[in-house]
UniProtKB/TrEMBL annotation:
Annotated source species: Streptomyces poonensis
Coiled coil, from the record: none
Superkingdom to which the source organism belongs: Bacteria
Example GO BP: methylation
Entry-linked InterPro entries: SAM-dependent_MTases_sf
Keywords associated with the record: Methyltransferase, Transferase
Classification via Pfam families: Methyltransf_24 (PF13578)
Protein name: Class I SAM-dependent methyltransferase
Tagged with keyword Methyltransferase: yes
């Protein structure tokens, strides 16, 4: 029987602005609850407005651990003005740049999950460079270029504890299916090729990998 969120958490997730589809969100939640049993923090790269963070926060709450979510809150390439995934309401009119932090904070507040999340505002490689603690779960959903997705993998995968999970979003093995590039797919292949991860599950474009050894 899969572990599903309570109806009010699912409703908050579905109402939140963002990019995580429901089926993948449910798979993400199940993986996060399972990984929470290790008693280590759960970390996400790519907060945006907090849609997936709701699920990680609730999984963390259930396990008595903390969810950490990292984002510079200035948006990815494809979310900038003029691109397909741009939402004009995310632009701060005073500085003329995207700022998803206020919406994220409201989202988390409304869901009643603020106490279970530490939000880190910064560039993922810069945060990873000083990170020293093992993690039970790393969810990679940040920038989708090779530069950014590759740096997320290099920065965070080494911190996944043995038995912990690395979850990658937007993995599209077929070039015709992708909509923001195949960099996450290349990261997924890199993780498997390293010998340090084995695949646990695939739900649409979401891949769950378990750390089984050193190797990275
Ligand atoms: C696809 S969105 C995340 C969607 C979110 N997980 C959801 O469920 O809706 C990607 C996010 O990654 C952030 N991002 C992109 N590159 C980043 C980097 N190098 N460091 C930190 N955040 C980054 C963007 O600001 C954006 O908010």
């Amino acid at each position: 029987m899969p572990t599903a969120p309570e109806p009010e958490i699912l409703a908050a997730f579905e109402a939140a602005k963002g990019f995580m589809p429901v089926r993948e969100g449910l798979a993400l939640y199940e993986a996060a609850v399972g990984a929470g049993r290790l008693g280590l923090p759960l970390l996400e790269v790519g907060t945006y407005c907090g849609r997936s963070t709701i699920l990680l926060a609730d999984a963390a709450r259930r396990s008595g651990v903390t969810a950490i979510t990292v984002d510079h809150h200035r948006g990815s390439e494809e979310q900038q003005p003029g691109w397909d995934y741009h939402d004009p309401s995310t632009v701060d009119p005073e500085v003329g740049l995207m700022d998803t932090l206020p919406t994220f904070r409201r989202t988390l507040r409304k869901a009643g999950l603020e106490d279970h999340v530490v939000a880190v505002v910064g560039r993922s490689p810069q945060v990873a460079a000083f990170w020293r603690s093992p993690l039970g779960f790393v969810f990679v959903d940040g920038g989708h270029t090779d530069e950014h997705a590759g740096a997320d993998y290099e920065g965070w995968a080494p911190h996944v504890a043995e038995g912990g999970l690395l979850v990658i979003h937007d993995v599209f093995p077929e070039p015709e299916d992708e909509f923001t590039g195949q960099a996450p797919y290349r990261v997924y292949l890199r993780a498997l090729d390293s010998g340090a991860f084995e695949e646990v599950s695939a739900t649409d474009s979401l891949r769950v990998l378990r750390r089984t050894g050193a190797g990275i």
